[in-house]
Amino acid sequence: MSTCALLVVGGGPAGHSAATAYRAADGTGAVILLAGEGRAPYERPPLSKELLRGKLEPEALPLAEHPAYYDEREITVRHDIARSLHPEDRRVSLADGAGEITYDHCILATGAQPVRPPIPGADRDGVHLLRTVTDALALRAAAAPAKHVLVLGSGFIGCEAAASLRLRGCAVTLVSQEPAPQAQRLGDEVAARLARWLAEAGVETQYGCELTVIDPDLRAQVSDGSTVDADLILLAGGVAPDTTLAREAGLTLADGGEIAVDTAMRTSAPGVLACGDCCHAEHAIAGRPLHVEHWGDALAQGEIAGASAAGREAVWDTVPGFWSTIGTDTIKYAAWGDGYKTTHLVDHGGGAFTAWYADAQGRCVGVLTHDRDPDYETGQRLIAQGASAP
Q: Is the CA virtual torsion 76, 77, 79, 80 positive or negative?
């Protein structure tokens, strides 16, 4: 049995940030980070872009700034997988007979897992998911130029991957239930521009429909009556928070199934914190809990969790947001992420635009920009202040 002051379960950005922040906040004692994927923490955003296109290799992805990064901070990275959490005696059991670890504080940074939809044939050979380096490399190897790839889903991973596969020389068809990419989340005007970017990249699209069956030869039946003959298929229909450890340990969960935490990332169990995609966190400025699945917010929440575990006063008070690059076009988005009443889009010419999102009282609750960084920075400030949208 191993013993540590801090056990971090999860080798994604939140876990990396939590372990690092604990040490930066003068946290003492042994620190163990369980990176069950078999790799030290690495950047995930390039998986659907540069890595998939072959412009970047896995060696360029680690979050550690240099090989001795964790050793210098006395952080032990282990590739064991946590099987069960026992908060009553502050203990985690490991899978495959790897023993147990007792802790003073445990941070759950278990992230999320891609959802495989209940479509007949969705588990066939040639049907891919995209969440890890291994996933991205397998998809890249299969997606040789001139191959026909069917992408299911028009979320940001689906759109980014579709454009990247086109840049790789594949023929790409994207099928989505939405009328345009991210229409419900971002509004019709922004969705129309994202749809245009995909079209300009050469991605064929079928909106307002869904796959119903995937045949053994990867011929996909679509609900509009058409078929798509693909060489491979990417399922990009979203993710679900990985909360198995927390649920089985009896931690309080939010209505959506995420781990409920306060502004300092503390769960309902003494000594246990959670951060990143797996949690539903109270926001100090918004005054309500939010669930976000953004890279930057996982890093930010990890910092809060690590500092809290070290005994520092810290709260989550940054405005959530993300960047997304579809082909050669990048959008920057900041928002509370739990809805808006009105959208106002400003066209700045030359392809640049800003979308302002407001609630029923006219307060700015979101901003999305393309080639308009000053508006993005202004929007973050207005959101945080609860000020009126422009």
A: positive
